[in-house]
Amino acid sequence: MPEISKRGNLMPNSPIRKLVPLAEEAQQKGNVVYRLNIGQPDIPTSPLAIEAIRNINVKVIEYGHSAGNESLRRKFVEYYKRINVNVNYEDILITTGASEAITLTLLTCLNAGDEIIVPEPFYANYFSFATATDVEVVPITSRMENGFALPPIEEFEKKITPRTKAIIICNPNNPTGYIYSRKELEQLRDLVVKHDLFLLSDEVYRELCYDGYKFTSIMELDGIDEHVILIDSVSKRYSATGLRTGVIVSKNRKLLEIALRFCQARLCPPYVAQVAAEAAIDSPQEYMDMMYNEFLKRRNFLVNELNSMPGVYCPMPKGAFYVLVRLPVDDAEKFAMWMLKEFNYNKQTVMLAPASGFYFNTDFGKREVRVAYVLNVEELKKALECLRKGLEAYPGRLSKDEIREELKELPVLK
Amino acid sequence: MPEISKRGNLMPNSPIRKLVPLAEEAQQKGNVVYRLNIGQPDIPTSPLAIEAIRNINVKVIEYGHSAGNESLRRKFVEYYKRINVNVNYEDILITTGASEAITLTLLTCLNAGDEIIVPEPFYANYFSFATATDVEVVPITSRMENGFALPPIEEFEKKITPRTKAIIICNPNNPTGYIYSRKELEQLRDLVVKHDLFLLSDEVYRELCYDGYKFTSIMELDGIDEHVILIDSVSKRYSATGLRTGVIVSKNRKLLEIALRFCQARLCPPYVAQVAAEAAIDSPQEYMDMMYNEFLKRRNFLVNELNSMPGVYCPMPKGAFYVLVRLPVDDAEKFAMWMLKEFNYNKQTVMLAPASGFYFNTDFGKREVRVAYVLNVEELKKALECLRKGLEAYPGRLSKDEIREELKELPVLK
């Protein structure tokens, strides 16, 4: 048979989804599987979005504009105005989710073989998008010790080569929950101006900032209009991940003009999803507050419970709906697989995302998992009870001495 | 500012969509623009699809499986069984339109720099997908003289190099309307086996074969299961182009396994579109017959009218809903632009797709346009009256002698 491509063979299995077959097997054996691996909240989709879908009343579901429906682009302008970001509808391209937004931006800005710098741990699919577009990921490691703050800007400087074309950040961060300060963003601004780089900022969790941490959008910074590309999506904001509606936003007209050619090749974004997204952006404040308060409650409960388990270490995240957790196990991926294949507690088990897939250097995340607090507190409670029992029973559990060694460089959590 | 990528600069403007701004200007001046440039029929979307959308009744629009909803994959199996193609649901990946299906297949099968052979004229976006994936298009020209039949297989042989990894055909063909015979497909089969190549067959117009021409799916051929990838979509079949639901079908499990990794990176296809597509596949025969008869009537009217215009040459297409037409003009793209910018007949004009964008060697299509018969006969009549008047008034019209020269190698149409 003809050979599969090299880039196909290089494509990673998603750390978030690769254990799905094991979860399905566990369910077939009659177990309940609490899925904390994936950013799929149980929060109801904004009712305005559902209503808009049910009210679709067209005779022909036609191709739309390749840039997306103008009415949706204008609705996004209204939304951004509310968060102090001033853009025109012509600065916006609608995409099939933030996934397509990032892929098309990489194609537009980077040649095959060019490099993109990414603070790690990073959203695992950044590596997939880069692989699919023949772009090299250059990681800079952020540390659990300081809550995964932006690494010193000198570390970025050291990694810049003639092939470096862009930096991508996720803010608030998936998987760490870190929120970049204005000062950190200004450092990045100075850096991309100095080295003439693009700066991609993925801000899909913008509304989820806790404990008074203030969010700054990359679009609020002056003097880098030609450098900045905002990546956004309605998936998390209105709990509508299955819609697949995202955007590329940039003041760089040349960039958008070229990105539009890639958009033309795939004709248009899905129509019904765009209608739903447009309605969702008008969701009332009560809906947004409900979601915010729900995630806040879950975070507090989850982090507290996790840190009460012997040998587990979980810093309090500032935003989004994920935590990165250090577990007292030999290998977090082995443990996650074992939980699905070998373990159950009263016919229940938990699905976790091994963190190694969120690091370029997979050794770094070896004892970490990402937990998404996408279930309500009652379900979370049951899930965490399983996790606690699983950690107790797991044959590869670290000894007390090993745990002490593992945690010795990490600050004591308050 | 940082530089746009080379591949971005290489991305072609869509010949189908690049005149859209001129059409918008013409409309702003108060003209009616008959859009015959794009495969966007006015046929009502299958009512079952619309109904399914209006009946959506979920609390959360969630991520689905990266391979697509299992129920939709199984529904496609039923559909294929009806057309004598036996596949399992595991042979099917749901994609965001045939566009994504082709892009992901190219990424899975070809490395950057590899070559794909394409009979030209070809669907213009094949070139865009190849450019976006750094794949080289190697064209083999089919000829208006013989209705755009498959070029002799020896011409394919001559073009095969160590870099050749695949051949792509569109059957029935967009833009030529040609339907490949079983004998031609068998020649391609022998070729891909001999040279160990992949064979992509884009069959989205499968139901539209006229005058008793029999359609053969590439999936009906034996002995090339590991080589063949079927590309399909519900867009044209159920007049639902804005849904964006396509498929990759292949018996090559390794290929699908790797393609699935690309699917995982973009998480899942749009949910609502999948629900609509699943319903549409059950569209009653009356709906399919209505569509078929409508396109047949339009084709006959259109081709007859076109050939009645002095100097216009239009062979009768066998399938799909396009014709390639030779026009008595100096340059078909200039003419198409002139029709929008300078011309109107009783405040009406026509938008055409210059054919040069459907050829790799753009000189070939210089005096041709693609016309999509996507309007009803009454509208077509008005559109063609505009075209006739436009051709009469166009300053770059060929002289009688030039027309004779232009058409001398083409057979007389019956």
CATH-assigned homologous superfamily of the largest domain in chain A:
Type I PLP-dependent aspartate aminotransferase-like (Major domain)
Rg from alpha-carbon coordinates of chain A: 21 Å
Shape call of chain A: globular
Tally the structural domains of chain A: 2
Greatest contact between two chains: A-B, 85 and 85 residues
Element string of chain A (H = helix, E = strand): HHEHHEHEHEHEHEEEHHHEHEEEHH
Question: Can you characterise this structure?
Answer:
The structure is a homodimer of 414-residue chains. With 414 residues, chain A is of the alpha/beta class. Chain A folds into two domains: 6-44 and 286-407, Alpha-Beta Complex (Aspartate Aminotransferase, domain 1); 49-280, Aspartate Aminotransferase, domain 2. Chain A contains 14 helices and twelve strands. The first copy, chain A, has helices spanning 6-10, 20-28, 47-54, 70-82, 97-109, 125-132, 153-159, 182-195, 253-265, 271-280, 285-307, 332-341, 377-393, 400-407; strands at 32-35, 92-95, 115-120, 136-141, 164-170, 198-202, 228-233, 246-249, 322-326, 348-351, 353-354, 368-372. Chain A has a seven-stranded mixed sheet with strand order 2-8-7-6-5-3-4, with helices on both faces. In chain A, strands 9-12-11 form a three-stranded antiparallel sheet. In chain A, β5 (164-170), α8 and β6 (198-202) form a beta-alpha-beta unit. In chain A, α5 (97-109) packs across α9 (253-265). The radius of gyration of chain A is 21 Å and the shape is globular. The N and C termini of chain A lie far apart (59 Å). The relative contact order of chain A is 0.17. The model of chain A has no long low-confidence stretch (mean pLDDT 96). The interface between A and B is large, with 85 and 85 residues.
